[in-house]
């Protein structure tokens, strides 16, 4: 890996109930996610365009996917502003753990807990 390579290639947010988790993320981000079976695992894919070099990921169920508020931490893109996303979190069944706060010239961050118990960061420039 060098400075021209994305440090993040793919991420998976653990879930117990793929449909419930899919609905949560679709609701707060106003997106459609695609379901996919991969062996014994089920995935709900965040929107992406293959071949662009942009990192993406999925919600995943399976033997090694256990929701937790500890461990690897991902930040999901809520540009241009996270206000609309945060306004939907609790109604969609999640919790806002840390409201929006400034990280200086790098924008803003908030921490949410999804319907499965996983904690993720939300990032936007405004």
UniProtKB/TrEMBL annotation:
<feature type="domain" description="VOC">
    <location>
        <begin position="7"/>
        <end position="125"/>
    </location>
</feature>
<dbReference type="InterPro" id="IPR004360">
    <property type="entry name" value="Glyas_Fos-R_dOase_dom"/>
</dbReference>
<dbReference type="InterPro" id="IPR052164">
    <property type="entry name" value="Anthracycline_SecMetBiosynth"/>
</dbReference>
<dbReference type="Pfam" id="PF00903">
    <property type="entry name" value="Glyoxalase"/>
</dbReference>
<dbReference type="InterPro" id="IPR037523">
    <property type="entry name" value="VOC_core"/>
</dbReference>
<dbReference type="InterPro" id="IPR029068">
    <property type="entry name" value="Glyas_Bleomycin-R_OHBP_Dase"/>
</dbReference>
<protein>
    <submittedName>
        <fullName>VOC family protein</fullName>
    </submittedName>
</protein>
């Amino acid at each position: 890996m060098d400075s021209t390579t994305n440090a993040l290639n793919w991420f998976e947010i653990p879930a117990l109930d793929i449909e419930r988790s899919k609905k949560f993320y679709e609701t707060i981000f106003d997106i459609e996610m695609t379901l996919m079976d991969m062996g014994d695992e089920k995935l709900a894919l965040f929107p992406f365009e293959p071949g662009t070099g942009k990192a993406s990921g999925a919600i995943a169920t399976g033997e090694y996917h256990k929701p937790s508020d500890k461990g690897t931490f991902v930040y999901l893109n809520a540009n241009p502003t996270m206000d609309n996303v945060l306004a939907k979190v609790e109604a969609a069944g999640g919790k806002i753990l840390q409201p929006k706060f400034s990280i200086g010239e790098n924008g803003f961050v908030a921490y949410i807990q999804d319907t499965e118990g996983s904690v993720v960061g939300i990032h936007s420039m405004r």
